[in-house]
Structure formats: C-alpha cells, structure tokens
Automatic annotation (TrEMBL):
Cleavable signal peptide: none
Biological source species: Streptomyces chrestomyceticus
InterPro entries registered for this protein in UniProt: ABC3_permease_C, MacB_PCD, Macrolide_Exporter_MacB
Protein name according to UniProt: FtsX-like permease family protein
Membrane-crossing residue ranges in chain numbering: 58-79, 341-367, 401-420, 440-465, 493-513, 519-540, 573-593, 810-836, 863-887, 899-918
Amino acid sequence: MTYAPQDSPEATTYASHDSPEATTYASHDSPVRPVRPVRSRRTARFLAARSLKLHRKAWAAVFAVLVLTSLVLGGFALATLSTVAGHARVERYAGAAAVVAGDQTTRYTAELMGGESHSASAELTERVRVPRSVLPRIAAVPGVRAAVADDAFPVAMSANPTATRAGAPAPTSTPTPVYGHSWQAAALAPFTLREGRAPAGPRQVVLDGSLADRMGVRVGDTIRAQSLGTPATYEICGIAAPKGQGDRTGLGHQGAVFFTDQRARQLAGHPGSTDAIGVLAEPGVSVEQIHAGVRAALAGAEPARSVGAGQRYEDDDTGLRVLTGDSRGEPEFLDAAPSRWGLLQLLASVCALVVMIAVLVVAGTIAQAVHQRAREMALLRAVGATPEQLRATVSREIRTVAVVAAVTGAIGSVPVFGLLLRLLRSRDAVPAGLELPTPWWLYAVPLLTAGLTVLVAWLAGTLACRRTARVRPAQAMGEAQGEPERPGRGRTVTGLVMLCLGAASAGTAVLQFGEVAAMAASTAAVTLVIGCALLGPWIARGALRVLGAPARRFGGAGGYLAAAAAQANSRRLGAAITPIVLMVAFVTVQMSGGATLDRQGGRQGEEAVRADLAVTTAGSGTTGGPGITEETVDRISRVPGVAAASGVLHSTVVLARKDVGEPRLDRLPVLAVSPSAMPRLLDPGVVEGDTAKLGRGTVAVGKDRARSLGLGIGSVVTLRYGDGANVSLRVAAVYERSLALGDFLFATEELAPHMSAPLHSRVLLGLDAPAGQVQAAVQRVLADTATGARVTPHPAGEQQKAEDRGVGEVITVVAVSVIGGFTVIAVLSTLTLIMIGRRQEIQLLRLVGAGRRQIRRMLRIEAAVVGLTGLVVGAAAALVPLVALSLPLAGTLPYLPPVQAGVIVAVVAVTVAAGVLLPMRPALRKRHPAGVGKR
C-alpha cells in the first residue's frame, strides 16, 4: 500500500494488502466517482486501523479516561442496585414462618390542583407495637403451630466481680447491642439450650453463647443487668445457641438475654402490647398459606397506640403487617429501612454527578483527540474522501478503543464495588442490621455501564468531527491551519444561558431557607460549572488579557512566546482549563458545604451547653449501657451541690408539608430536656417566647424553621413522632441555635412516651458547690443506678446531626476522591494531547533560534496561566453557590479548612506541571538540527 504523509501532496491512491483493487480519492478539483458502500466500509476500516497505529499516544489518553469512566460508573451502579435490593438481616426470627409487626411507615396524602391526590411516605424510627389481644386470633389460624409474643428491650450488663467464679476467662467488650427477651421467644430463632436449664425465677437468665464468651461467664455465675429501671443481679441458669447454625453460638449482630415471660413483660414496660409476634408453622404448611391465613385473621386490627390529648393518627390504612422472607428482619433492626433509604438517595445523587462529569470529561478528551487530527482529516477531504468515510473512520476508531476500555473498566468495577462496601461498613455508615446482597444478576450491571461509556464516546467523536466532515474540502484545509477566530454561536449562547440560570438559582437560594435553599444552591453549582465549560475559550481569552501583559513584561522571551502561543490557541487553552474548573468547583463545594455547617453547628453547640458536669455511658454492651433512666436522673438531682440536672433524649419527628405542590415528609432529629433546667444547662438562644412554658402539648421551634412554616408564639404546628403519632403542638418559644439543637425542642414528658426506650443519652449537671466533691458523690450514685456510666467535667457541645450524616460523610469522601481522581486523569490526558500536537510547533521554534531554556520558561508560564485560571474560575464557580447556601442556612460565609484548600492547590499545580512539561521532554532533549547552542 502507498500512504502519503499528511504534509505531502503526493499519492492519492490507497490499496490494501489483501485487495488488488485501489480506492481512488479524487481531489476537490477533479470529478468524483461514486464509491460503492462495500468499498467505502473497507476504506473506513483500513484508515481506522492505520490511524490507531499512527496516533497511539492520543488514543492511549482517551483509553485511560474511558477505563476510569467505565470503572467508576460500574462500581457506583453496583452499590446503588445492591442498596435497592437491600433488606434488614433476619436473625432473631429466622425460625418463624411469618412475623406480625406494626406498620413502621407513615404516609401523607395531599390533593393537588385538578383534584388529583399524591402520597408521600417515610419510615418511622420508634417502635409501633402490636396489641397482645390478637394473639388468640393468630394462634387459631389453620396451620399455625404457635404464636409467640416477643419484646426486645435494651440491656446493659457487667459480670459481677464478687460472684464470678475464679479462673473464668477475662471479659471483653461487646461491640453489638444486647436485648432482653422472654424465654418463650427463644423458639423464634430458634435457640436451644447448650448448657443448664430454662429460667424459672425472676432473678434467673439465659445468655446466648457468644455473649457469655465475651463476658467470660458460665452457668452458675452472676451478672449485673439493667434495662429501663435500676440494675439488678441475676444468676445465669443456662447458655443457649441458635439451632442449625453450625458452630455459631450467637446471632451475629445482636446479643440476647432471656428472662422468664413474666419478668420480661415487667422489664419491657408495656404489658398490654408487644414488639412483634412470631408465627411458627406446622410441618408441611407453606409460608404462603400462613401469610394468607394470618392476614385474614388480622383484618381490621390496628397497632397498639396510646393516643393522648391533641393526638391522632392519620393516613394509616394498613393496620398490622404480616412479614415473610427477608422482610422478617425489619422488626429486629428498625434503623435498617431509614438507613437504606438515606444511602440510596446519596448514592443516586453521586451517580448522577459522576455521570455528568464523565460526559463532560469524556467529550472534552475525545474532542481534543479528534481536533489534533484536523489537518489529517482536512487533507483526506481535499484528496476526495467523502464525509461519510471520515465519520465512519472516526466512529470505527472510537468504537475500537471504547469497547476495550469499557470492558476493562467493567471488570475492574467489581473490586471497586467491594472496596466501597468495606469502606461504608468500616466507618459505620451502614448499620450492622442492613444486609446489602449481591445476587448473580447484579454483576451484569457493569456491562450496561460499559455500553453507556461506549455510547458517550461514540457520540462525542461523531460531534467532534462533524464540522470537518461537513464543510467543503478547501474550507477544511483553511481551518486546519489554525483555530476558528471565535467559538460557535450556539455554544456561546448556551454557555451564557447556563451562567444566567446559575446566577438566578444562587439568588433564589439566598432568598429562601432550608431544603429549598440547598436545592437552589446545588442547581447553581451544576449550571455554573457547565456554563464555564461551554465558555472555556472565552474564559481563556479573558485570562490572557489579564495575565498576558505581566507574562510579556516579566517573563522575557519565554513570557512573550507563551502569551503569543496562548493568544493564538485560546480554544486549546480553554480545553485544558475546563477539567481544572470541574475539579476545583465540585471538590470545593463538596468539602466546604459540610465543613461550613459543621463549624457553625459546633460553635452553636458549644455556646448552648452551659453545664458544669455531664454523665454519659460508654456505649452498649458489657462495659456500658444503652442510656440513662429517668430514675437515675432524679437521684442525681438530689445529690448535694447539684443545682440543676436534666437528661437529654434523642429521637426523630416527621414533618409533613407541601413542596412545589407535592406532598413531602421530612424526618428530622430532635431532642428533649427538662424545661426547668433551661437556660442554666442548655441555652438554645431564645429570640421569642419562653422555654419555661415547654411541657405537654408545646414545642420550641428553630428560627429558620419557624420562618419557613410561618410560625410564631401561640401558633400550632402538626408533627408526627417516631412512633407515628400525629400531634398538634403549640409553639412556646423560638430559638436561633437550631444548627446545634435541631429544628424542634421538646420537654422530656412530651417526647418520652413516644420512644421505644426512653433512655437519656447523657445527663447535664449545673453545680453550686466545688466540682470535685460533687463529681465523687454523683459517681457513687451511679454505681448503684447506672451500669457503665461515668462523670465527665466540661461537657462537649450538643450538636444534632441528621441520621444519614455518617453515610453522607463517607459518600462525600468517596465522591471527592472519585471526582478528584477523574478530573486529574482528564487534565493529564487533555494536556498531554495538546502538548503532543504542539511538538511540531516546538521544533519550529527551535529551528528559528529559540533555546531550550526559553522554551522551558514558555511552557512553565503557560502551565502557570492554565493552573491559575482554572483555580480562580473554579473557585468563583464554587463560591457563588456556597455563599448562597451558607448565608441562609448558617448565617455565615463559607468555610474551607486551610489544609484542604492547600491540597486542592497542590494537586492542580502538580497535575498541570506534569501534563505540560513531561510530554515535551523528548522534544527538548534532542539537539538542534542546525547545531544552534543552548540558551
């Protein structure tokens, strides 16, 4: 075959080795003969193969970007779909055919314009119980062997050091929560005795084997246990283990302590209701039969709820639920469903963000790779290649590279998915009770993301070569000698429109508050970054006008060359700046948004807490407790020297509202304290009303939330507690420290009845005597009333955080890492492509007398211009939405930790320097062809 280089006017005949025929391309001034479709496809295949060999470095950069795109999209898609298929673990009810539980979902239905009704739902975080009166109805269902009531109440335990026999293993900490149950409920796992006997008296218990091993106790030893009352000493009469689980001696993610049925009902504190009812089936009876029979028996039955004054239940048309299969674990782990929904929302938002950035990065990289070949494609057009042949050639090249890259990335996405799950588990972002399965069909998802990657690459390549393939050959040759004088009108107009939309969204965020402000600020960030990407050439020109003069004045010959080269190729410079703007803007928004709220919330929390001492527990398990009882708080308040004492309860409420006409349910964290202890112990910063009026039927509201709901002193707000109670409350006070204390503040007597276990997370103490003396007295009281509690001076600030904040922090770190790594690869690829295309330019400068030092200085100045422009524009694109977000939500300017800001600047500097200087090293290493010396 004869192939003429792109700068040679010779040889217009191309013949493949496997074909005796030659495909002739007529030049633009000779008649063109029609080309057969088969020959046209053969020609495109031949040209694509030669181009892949000739432009290996350019396609290597595209290959790297596409591999990373497929890998990241596949990993996040796997995590998202695994969360969709997620469910609560089934441990305690593994032996039950079905479980009857209260409906843990609250619903809100709103009528829209035109009479159409829409509904929204939210998961409840406190237990909705089942009346014990339905037990006979369930037990009478044909095929049911037994209906067993089960109560799960938190238990704190420690081995009795005076009664434990000598030589017992040393106790270890228990990382899992421990719950008490009746011995009758042991059949639901099912548990069987490995040692000892069943409990027969109120001071006898059976432990699961795993818990006993961790505590270092055996049958006959004694333990000290506390639930919702005072601690008591119990004798271990037996040790049990789940049946049919091999060598496992426990449940895995929860510990179990079994009491007598009467003692368990007494400790649970609600004798008329139970947490759940397990249904055991007769041999040979199917789960479907049990489900249908129990559903029919429960028709019309309602959950057990104590409705007080001003309380009601709405939108509850499901009554009790009959759970089978994987759903049986929902009553065991109430936090699994809310955590799954929060994780799903965060993963979906990150996926959308990654897809958008991937499209921008892939399109920019491929467009730059195709633009490097503009002269080659113009020459092919000039010698007679048709537009269809050019498009087919580029399409075939991109498909070849994209398919291999996408499949490689899809294979690598599986271990990335595993790493992401391990990271979420290690940071406790996913509760232990949430199972994220990986069924076999899940691993077909990376193939779909690989197909999406190929489609994006093909579209980007088709759009990149459309102008060269469409214009007349003579015009294509003219445009190939340089860049168009100004970007296309459509691109410019679209970019300006996106900037205007971003500014408008930022203005909306400043004028609004709450979630509306956050959504508007997020929209502003996305639209501003897209606008900057579209207006990249104009941004580059503007940057050169500002930086060109100092570069010429202080950079010497290298500065003059850098300014001239950049001025002549503003589109090329804009292509290099765009991924830097993407990285800086998105990373800054992700890191600064949470840091600003945390900083301001921490400051408010420190200002709010005025207590001298605090009583806390070390956590669940053998060394600590799940919380502190109200009885303990009362005894502490009577200690001499304690002027004020108040426990702190944490729970959630659900706020029903309309958002742009659509019904919406927001689950918000709340706390409750004793009104008499404010503001001596906890000062919320009251701006209106009086917190001393808090009590039954009243609530204090944060200033921003009151403004959004139009509330004032004496107004009525309707909230749904964590157990589903829909309550109308009168506003008693409005406070300003809502970032720390949450949007609603309750009295203890108002919130406690709606909690599954009303245990205080800590007790705040105000003193009127020396702290050391009082601390010792309080510690003596705790030794008898609270297992594992301790007294600490100088209490930390109180700061409420959303229940999905833990997973949000992990996802933010992952998103920042992914976006940062993605754009770093994009910057390197784009700059490498640009510098490879400039090697002839550098060689020409060497021929006309430019020295190596001058060219190096020119490249360094260009790198500085690109990096500085990207940092400034990216920071500006991030600052606008951040200001719009932080002012209404935190009342302060955005904050970014200096270390994180320094990391962003360092990454940009290193990446740009590597992308500009490293590709030019081979060209600068060669000696001057004419023997010109170094300068």
